[in-house]
Amino acid sequence: MDARSRRKFLGLCLGGLLAGAGGAVLYPLIRYLAPRRDGSARRTVTFPAAEVPEGAAKFFEYNGKTAVVIRQKNGALVALSAVCTHLGCVVQWQKEKEEFLCPCHAGRFSAAGQVLGGPPPKPLETIPVTAANGTITVG
Amino acid sequence: MNLAKRIYTWVDVRIGAGALVEKELTGYLLPTNINVWYSMGSILLFIFAMQVVTGMLLLIYYVPDADKAFKSVTFIMNEVPFGWLIRMCHAVGSNMMVLILLFHMLSVLFMGSYKSPREMNWLSGFILLNLVMGISLTGYLLPWSQLSFWATTVATNSVGAVPVVGPYLVEFLRGGKLVGPPTLGRFFALHVAVIPITIAALVGAHIFFLQRTGVSTPPFGLQETTNRWLGDRYRYESHPGGIPFFPHYALQDLTSIAVYCALFLGVVFFDPYIFFPATAFVPADPFQTPAHIKPEWYFLPNYQTLKLFPSEFLGIAVQGAAMTFLALLPFIDRGQEKHPLKRPLFLACAIGGIVLYIALMIWGHYS
Ligand code: HEM
Ligand code: FES
After folding, report:
1. How would you class B136 by CB atoms within 10 Å of its CB: exposed for 0-12, middle for 13-18, buried for 19 or more?
2. How many domains, chain B?
3. Maximum Cα–Cα distance across chain A
4. Domain contains B314
5. B311 Cβ contact list (under 8 Å, min separation 6)
6. Is A4 in the B-facing interface, judged by CB distances under 8 Å?
7. Mean pLDDT across the stretch A106-118?
């Protein structure tokens, strides 16, 4: 074998070994750092209906994100994602006006999640909600 | 390729990278009879870097709170993907660091490299040894296991033998009368901030001294093995006609690091619990001392010495004297000769000392 192709071959072997070693370091490292998922992705959340009286809002965690349930003065129950569609702050419920205000850049949403004003580009995501036997079930 | 070259030229004409490489790497000449023991320092740098990286990774999940520390370590071991690997690398690495540090010191001893003008190199290395023992001792408490708790109780307690201020010193170290949550707070700060930064600074000083003095010539394979520095003026020990650091000795360094990795990963994958007695897996209980609490292997000689002497003060004093002697060795041993076989008194003391150290370690293990 001529010395040059031998040198190239050895270089390739070394490169391969180094790449393998790099992978063996990177893979565990990425797995170690990757966010952990708790298996039950699609869960429902329940709580007593008494926790959401007329005109009130209740914030809770749903699927890893912040959500809100409100009971309007007319008795209607609405569940929404509370994450503002602009830059991700959590919207606040304004009881008297019956609308949501995002304190970050003054985005406004109706009780149904529709954009009323400000920078948010999209309505708040709605989440299915039911009430039966004094229990509210979200999801 | 062409682009890489152009970037290199761009940098070179600005900061003289090529001249630097020529001076510090390819033109940095080492003695032709240099040997593998001169690569221990590179292995130590590698281990320290590994400890820093794995330590930072552990910090992501570790919680330094007496109520949560043990649980968080268990979580790392059992739940976090590859958490066991990171933790085992950190724990096994700490033991390896002490081991290689001892090898490094022994090679310096036997080759007489501590002799003038390298006293400052020796002293900085000696302080590093103490800092590494300190970082290991403080890290040992962090998992908050029975082993952590009681080993720290015993270790901090022995400081109480210092005359007059002893009892106060113990309380100060612990942040209370006994080991407890305040101890964890201070040991955590020492372990992850104070001592690592101090080690990094001292490593810098250690390498700076080496750079200024030049690498020593090993005493093997030469006729003339005496130290010819007269102490009258500064002299850089150059090695004209020697072998270049890059690529020749850099390859030796890499080889040594690779051999070290094989040993290290062998322990991590095949026998990681060699350094973990059963008490390491039980959460700390301040009301119940388990049987057979022993320190890590490298503290066993100290442990056994303390047990041997009738008074704790004597035990501490003897160890203090031995450490002081070791620290001041270059000022005590001022002979010109560097070859170990031509230094019979040194050789007898060194071998006697090593045998004594190992004997005390084994005795401590079985006692
Ligand atoms: C910046 C550097 C370092 C950081 C951030 C760090 C961080 C940590 C953390 C968070 C722990 C607790 C988790 C565990 O017990 O496994 C720990 C444990 C430990 N560390 Fe470090 N460390 C560093 C450097 C070192 C060094 C240089 C050594 C020794 C040479 C060392 C020796 C130890 C020991 C002996 C333990 C206990 C191991 C065990 O029982 O699992 N650490 N370290
Ligand atoms: S984040 Fe809500 S308005 Fe900007």
Report:
1. buried
2. 1
3. 89
4. no
5. B161
6. no
7. 96
Across the interface, whether the CB atoms of A31 and B86 are under 8 A apart is answered: no
Q: What total of structural domains would you count in chain A?
A: 2
Nearest to B269 by CA among A99, A20, A28: A28
Do A81 and A102 touch, CB atoms closer than 8 A?
no
- Tell me, what amino acid is at B154? V
Nearest chain B residue (CA) to A37 = B80
Map tokens 């240099």 to a residue: B34
Give residue A24's domain range. Answer: 3-34
CA-only gyration radius of chain B, Å: 23
- The answer to whether residue B342 is domain-embedded is no
pLDDT at B293: 87
Radius of gyration for chain A, computed over Cα atoms and rounded to the nearest angstrom: 26
Token pair recorded at residue B43: 């292995």
Q: Is residue B321 part of a domain?
A: no
> What confidence score (pLDDT) does residue A1 get?
61
Average pLDDT over residues A73-100: 94
**Whole-number pLDDT of residue A64:** 86
CATH of residue B124's domain is 1.20.810.10
DSSP character at residue B25? I
Using an 8 Å CB-CB cutoff, list chain B residues near A31: 81-82
CA A107 to ligand 2: nearest atom: 3
Provide the 3-class DSSP secondary structure of residue B219. Answer: coil
- Computed over every residue of chain A, the mean pLDDT equals 92
Question: Based on the domain organization, do A27 and A86 belong to the same domain?
Answer: no
Cα separation of B98 and A18, whole Å?
28
The confidence score (pLDDT) of residue B299 equals 95
Query: For position A69, which CATH number holds?
Result: 2.102.10.10
Q: Which domain holds residue B177?
A: 39-217+244-294
Query: Does A54 share its domain with A119?
Result: yes
How confident is the model at residue A39, as a pLDDT? Answer: 57
Count CB atoms within 10 A of the CB of residue B48.
19
Other Cβ atoms less than 10 A from the Cβ of B174: the count is: 20
- From the CA of B67, how many Å to the nearest CA of chain A? 23
Q: Look up residue B318 and give its two tokens.
A: 């003897």
Query: Looking at residue A42, what is its pLDDT?
Result: 66
Q: What is the DSSP letter of A84?
A: -
pLDDT of A41 reads: 59
> Which residues of chain B register pLDDT less than 70?
1
Please report which ligand is nearest the Cα atom of A119: 2
